[in-house]
């Protein structure tokens, strides 16, 4: 049977980590997954929480000080499963049967399902018409990636926010097979660096898109418009009404 490695990167979010722990604790088919926690040298009670629940945690390690994506790469290097899913502290599986539903569908290099915010809205609704360079079609909390892909092409740590987007565009340009499933995989916690750093996020996404779609005029126009929106969202919120979600 295939094994899934669940990797959680956390720092000073013991309350969120406990929610994730309870979610993983409730999963069926315990022999089909492992849980790895990479901790960014937390100063809250994360260590105590881990010590109290060591029987539910397969591996706990401190990160090597190379940022979020460095910690994710570190987790991949320690994983023993054939597939990887990243579930941040505070994020939870959508139900006890998620892994048992997904494992039979892991016949492709990348398999992604659905994720929902705490308010019930879907994180990235499936849209076949969306251009790859327009942004992530899924969050990392709902995608299962074959480990060998992440070992051969680790996250580019020169990105602080958009290395997962860069990885996706690389996978598409490399014609890596992907499969969309309707399975609801995760409920995600709000916040995060990409949610609060609007301008840096758009700039990094644009940098990733230029790597693979440099000659696509539509891509450049899209990001110039989106950068204008990002500055308006940060410094002049009234201008945001000129740009619809569909455009962005």
Word description of this protein:
With about 250 residues, the chain is an alpha/beta fold. About 35% of the residues lie in helices and about 20% in strands. It is built from nine helices and eight strands. It has an eight-stranded mixed sheet. Helix 2 links the parallel strand 2 and strand 3. Helix 6 packs parallel to helix 8 (about 200-215) and helix 8 (about 200-215) runs antiparallel to helix 9. It is globular. The termini are far apart. Residues about 240-248 have low confidence and may be disordered.
Q: In brief, what are we looking at here?
A:
The protein is an alpha/beta fold and 248 residues long.
Element layout with pairings:
Layout: E1 4-10, H1 14-25, E2 33-39, H2 46-52, E3 59-62, H3 67-78, E4 83-86, E5 92-93, H4 98-102, E6 110-117, E7 143-146, H5 147-152, H6 163-173, E8 178-188, H7 193-196, H8 198-213, H9 217-235
Parallel strand pairs: 1-2, 1-4, 2-3, 6-8
Antiparallel strand pairs: 4-7, 5-8, 6-7
Strand proportion, as a percent range, falls in: 15-25%
Mean pLDDT: 90
Trace the largest sheet across and list its strands. 3-2-1-4-7-6-8-5
| CA-based shape | globular
Top keywords for this entry?
8-stranded mixed sheet; 248 residues; alpha/beta; globular; 9 helices
């Amino acid at each position: 049977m295939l094994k899934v490695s669940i990797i959680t990167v956390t720092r000073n979010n013991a309350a969120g980590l406990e929610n994730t722990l309870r979610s993983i604790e409730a999963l069926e088919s315990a022999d089909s997954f492992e849980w790895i926690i990479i901790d960014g040298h937390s100063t809250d009670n994360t260590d105590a929480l881990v010590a109290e629940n060591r029987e539910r945690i397969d591996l706990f390690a401190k990160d090597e000080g190379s940022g979020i994506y460095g910690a994710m790469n570190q987790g991949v290097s320690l994983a023993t499963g054939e597939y990887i899913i990243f579930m941040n502290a505070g994020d939870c599986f959508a139900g006890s049967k998620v892994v048992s539903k997904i494992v039979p569908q892991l016949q492709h290099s990348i398999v992604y399902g659905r994720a929902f915010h705490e308010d019930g809205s879907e994180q990235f609704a499936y849209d076949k018409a969306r251009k790859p360079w327009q942004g992530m079609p899924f969050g990392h909390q709902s995608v299962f990636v074959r480990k060998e892909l992440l070992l051969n092409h680790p996250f580019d740590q020169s990105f602080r926010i958009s290395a997962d987007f860069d990885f996706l565009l690389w996978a598409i340009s490399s014609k890596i097979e992907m499969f969309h499933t309707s399975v609801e995989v995760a409920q995600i916690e709000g916040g995060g660096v990409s949610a609060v750093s609007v301008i840096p996020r758009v700039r990094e996404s644009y940098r990733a898109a230029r790597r693979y779609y440099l000659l696509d005029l539509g891509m450049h126009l899209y990001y110039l418009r989106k950068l204008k929106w990002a500055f308006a969202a940060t410094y002049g919120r009234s201008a945001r009404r000129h740009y619809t979600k569909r455009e962005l």
